[in-house]
Amino acid sequence: MMDWTDRHCRYFHRLLSKRARLYTEMVTTGALLHGNVPRHLDFDAAEHPVALQLGGSEPADLAKCARLGVEWGYDEINLNCGCPSERVQRGAFGACLMAEPALVADCVKAMADAVNVPVTVKHRIGIDKGESYEFVRDFVGTVAEAGCRVFIVHARNAWLKGLSPKENREVPPLRYAMVHRLKQEFPDLVISINGGITSDAQLAEQLQHVDGVMLGREAYHHPWWLAGWDALCGDEPPPRSREEVEAAMVGYMERQASSGTPWHSVARHMMGLYNGLPGARRWRQVWSDHRLKDRPPREVMALAHEKL
């Protein structure tokens, strides 16, 4: 979800669900230790609970960045061991770390010793063409011994060569049973599943086997789906209509303008809000029209509603 789940996206998603735990896009240790920390870590208080996802493989660097995350108020620090992109591999982190469970354990321990919030790990069920359950079982077991109690498992292998990250979201096949087996073997750990889940029925089915479900692009492209998630947790959903969510986002755009953020940098994340309704495409066209970028967002909203 690099370049997708930025702070503006997360604010939008929080308007739709108060219970969902929101995750940042992956932030590398180098970006925090040598770059613009506020740019990467600033967020709105409304986003809680929110987790900072880190990319890195040096325990000392990860510990420093975990401390930064806690100083900035994050509720969880997550280590990414699932991204298969070659750029990430060149930095020796992401999915390639699954081949070095002892190193991941060292990283987790260093972070856990440095902070007082949960340190979690997101990973795949395997790398390349290996299909051994024992591989992922031993990875989870080793990392759990270092203090990690929460594992978010993308239920397909990461192919480190021969596939783009986009292709690796659909190839090779998903194997949910591997994740279910992890939960059976590690009943005291929190095991969440990720990959290919697109409906309430699938959500409910997975929650019969695991503790949680992580969703990415499906939630991004069909955000109104989030509005029903709180009910799955036994809570009342936020009492907002799509129109009220859109108006709340316009208010947020106006507040962000005071710090120099153009409204279209925020609006891009809500393009799926009316998906499935008549006029949704025309509504998106108005909000995406570059000729309107100098207009106030409230005026653009009024123009967009003429198309719905």
From TrEMBL:
Site (Interacts with tRNA): 80, 166, 169, 281, 284
EC assignment: 1.3.1.91
DUS-like FMN-binding domain sequence ranges: 1-296
One protein family per Pfam: Dus
Superkingdom of origin organism: Bacteria
Catalytic activity: 5,6-dihydrouridine(20a) in tRNA + NAD(+) = uridine(20a) in tRNA + NADH + H(+); 5,6-dihydrouridine(20) in tRNA + NAD(+) = uridine(20) in tRNA + NADH + H(+); 5,6-dihydrouridine(20a) in tRNA + NADP(+) = uridine(20a) in tRNA + NADPH + H(+); 5,6-dihydrouridine(20) in tRNA + NADP(+) = uridine(20) in tRNA + NADPH + H(+)
Cofactor (UniProt): FMN
Keywords assigned by UniProt, alphabetized: Flavoprotein, FMN, NADP, Nucleotide-binding, Oxidoreductase, RNA-binding, tRNA processing, tRNA-binding
Binding sites annotated in the UniProt record for FMN: 53, 122, 154, 194-196, 216-217
Function as written in the Swiss-Prot or TrEMBL entry: Catalyzes the synthesis of 5,6-dihydrouridine (D), a modified base found in the D-loop of most tRNAs, via the reduction of the C5-C6 double bond in target uridines. Specifically modifies U20 and U20a in tRNAs.
Family recorded in the similarity comment: Belongs to the Dus family. DusA subfamily.
Name assigned to this protein: tRNA-dihydrouridine(20/20a) synthase
